[in-house]
Design a protein that fits this description.
It is a single chain. The chain has 282 residues and is an all-alpha fold. Helices cover 78% and strands 0% of the residues. It starts with a helix and ends with a helix.
Length: 282
């Protein structure tokens, strides 16, 4: 394995582990709604990201050119995905939220033939069946009574669907990953500002965790992922990305002492197996 490819794998693995920290950090924040947490996470990330680009002289990377409609839609879907994901974390558990977010490849398989003109292969159908079984084991429709836990599960399912459409929208835009990240941060900040602002003392009490959210699982993870993606195949990057949900579940169990049932573990394994089938070649 050449040195450049090895470093690319390392960057993507680190990015996936950093992404997995979102739920654990968010659980430590007190007195803030999901929309407020996301607002300050994105707002801080936007400011730090802009300063970093300015200092490094790389502002050209985020220059607007051509059709911006998909870029705007990408930003809206990012906000919706984050809201659904954080609602799931707050009302269910980090383990369930991250596993349900990982169902995105299932919905991409369903909708890509119409939206991206991609063909469904046999392995896609198998992956779809495995992932649906996994969702059913985690969700357990017979027990849904719209209590907080059930709302968290439904929000988790929604986050997977929204994230799938976010990925498919990204395929339609010609902008770089850095440009998509920066402008989606800006759009999210503007959208969430009316509902995300909280008293200064609440922000100051949670400032350390909010800064951690902005820097580690947002700016650093995005930068490392896209740097690594330049050095390895996209399919391999997708496989390595599956480290994120596994890492998130492990962190939730070790740090938050969350319990995960046998059925939920089996359901999560089926979802990850389905995602792996979709993202691997023969």
């Amino acid at each position: 394995m050449d040195k450049e490819r090895f470093s690319g794998y390392g960057e993507i693995i680190i990015a996936a582990i950093l992404w997995s920290m979102v739920g654990v950090i968010a659980k430590q924040i007190q007195g803030m709604s999901p929309q407020a947490i996301i607002f300050y996470r994105i707002c801080f990330a936007l400011v730090i990201f802009f300063i970093a680009l300015l200092v490094s002289g790389k502002l050209k990377a985020i220059k607007l050119c051509g059709n911006v409609s998909y870029l705007f839609l990408f930003g809206i879907l990012q906000v919706a995905t984050m809201l659904a994901y954080f609602i799931s974390i707050m009302n269910a558990s980090v383990s369930i939220a991250v596993l349900l977010l990982s169902t995105a490849p299932v919905y991409i398989t369903i909708f890509s033939p119409w939206l991206l003109k991609e063909k469904i292969k046999t392995r896609g159908i198998i992956a779809l069946v495995l992932s649906i079984l996994g969702i059913l084991l985690i969700v357990d429709p017979g027990k849904l009574d719209f209590n907080p836990s059930s709302i968290g599960i439904l929000a988790g399912v929604a986050s997977g669907i929204l994230y799938a459409f976010q990925v498919m929208t990204s395929k339609h835009t010609k902008y770089s990953g850095y440009a998509q990240a920066f402008w989606s941060f800006l759009i999210a900040t503007l959208i969430l500002m009316p509902v995300g602002l909280v008293p200064v003392e609440v922000v100051s009490n949670n400032l350390l965790y909010l800064m951690f959210l902005a820097i580690f699982p947002t700016i650093l993870s995005v930068s490392l992922y896209f740097n690594g993606l330049k050095k390895v195949k996209a399919q391999n990057a997708s496989i390595l990305g599956l480290i994120e949900p596994l890492s998130a579940v492990i962190l939730a169990v070790l740090i938050l002492n969350e319990n995960i049932s046998t059925l939920e573990m089996i359901g999560g394994a089926l979802i990850l197996a389905g995602a792996a089938l979709i993202t691997t070649d023969k």
